[in-house]
Design a protein that fits this description.
Elements (H helix, E strand, L loop, with lengths): L3 E5 L4 E5 L2 E5 L3 E5 L3 E6 L5 E2 L1 H9 L3 E5 L5 E5 L8 H9 L3 H25 L5 H8 L10 H14 L10 H23 L18 H6 L4 H11 L9 H8 L5 E4 L2 E4 H18 L8 E2 L10
Parallel strand pairs: 1-5, 2-6, 5-7
Antiparallel strand pairs: 2-3, 3-4, 7-8, 9-10, 9-11
Helix pairs in contact: 3-4, 3-5, 3-8, 6-8, 6-9, 6-10
Length: about 300
Amino acid sequence: MAFRNIYIENPARLSIKNRQLVISQDSEYKIPVSDIQSIVIDNLQTTLTAPTISFLAENQVALYTCNRQHLPCAVLMPLGNHSRKLQALTLQMETTKRFKNRMWQKIIKQKILNQAQCLEFNERGKVAELKNIANSVVEGDLTYCESQAALIYFRELFGAGFSRREDNVQNAALNYGYAIIRGIIARDICAYGFEPALGIFHRNELNAFNLADDFIEPYRPYVDLWVSQNISEDERYFLPEHKREIISLLFTEVSINNEIQTLTNAVRKTVASFSSCCRINSIMALKLPQLLALKAHEYE
């Protein structure tokens, strides 16, 4: 099972030799590709060969590249690794509007419940109010409970003057964390043979990952919780150690289907359960995460 997340901060050359990733810097490091879950390249002077890219994709490694603002701007998605791609795509395209609306209702309800739990972990107010909103979500969220909850949630979590539109370190950290989890979700969507552009609720024609943007919703509070506990409003810089710690969230504990899993494994269970839901035309099988206090998962 892959368990390593590689963060490339300094100039490097990446290549493959004997099924190992070779990282050439001042020294040379070799890591079995089978151990690697993701690679984040956060240095524009890093180079890698075409065979390296192909081998990483064939082995389901999520490869992120970052822009000049040090935020993930692209992710390499594996193609053709699912043996029944057409079957999965057909199931996905045959889902009804009612099916999608009920699934979106379930996703948003769990997202808001996780937001309420995030506030509770931080000993903030409005917890009961968010839980009431969660229980009021209707099919398709036609009453916009998600946006109502968000308005209350972010101001309660980060302060009355906080806005997601501001250019500050807290928002940079949130965006970075969301992008990392979004990439992992998109990878698993492709691995299960689904088309990531075909969303449940999101349907932007310019977005290649609408389905990933649907499934990420109940996972966002994990990033919110970390940022609220580690990045203050007067923080001046989004540091490399912040990024490494955010990437480590992929190994934090998640409660899903009455089991404790890493966030990465929980994402895989969510995507796998979506496959089951499409086959039986029911949302009852959909597995979504419940927010836990941040703690690295320990394997027995």
